[in-house]
Amino acid sequence: MSDLSALLDSIRECPGDRARWLALSGWLRDNGRDDEAVAMRVFWSALRDNVTESRISLGDTLTDLARNARVLGQVARQVEGRASSPPPLPGVPAG
């Protein structure tokens, strides 16, 4: 069984476990799929809900992620950038 297959099986087993999604994100990054990786890291809870609440298969969820990876990756990087920057102080100009 490949690493990817094991990761996917792990998520199917327990889709609510954030660490499993992050492990898959790491695999994607390590395999040159950076946009998918960052999108998964940031939006993992929406992907989880797709699988658990909407009952969309993990395969279909990941296919949608791959199809939209470029745009989702850009948005995810912006979200991460905001999260790592402290909020501006009231009355203090930015920059």
Question: Short description, anyone?
Answer:
By secondary structure, the chain is mainly alpha-helical. The protein has helices spanning 3-13, 18-30, 34-52, 58-67, 69-84.
Question: Can you offer a commentary on this structure?
Answer:
The structure is a single chain. The chain has a domain at 18-80. The chain is mostly helical and 95 residues long. The protein contains five helices and no strands. The model has no long low-confidence stretch (mean pLDDT 91). The protein is elongated and about 50 Å long. The longest helix is centred in the middle third of the chain and has 19 residues, at 34-52. The protein has helices spanning 3-13, 18-30, 34-52, 58-67, 69-84.
SS field, number of helical segments: 5
Biggest beta sheet summary: none
Number of strands: 0
Order of helices and strands: HHHHH
Low-confidence segments, given as residue ranges, are none
Helix content: over 70%
Shape, per Cα inertia axes: elongated
- Calculate Rg over CA atoms: 15 Å
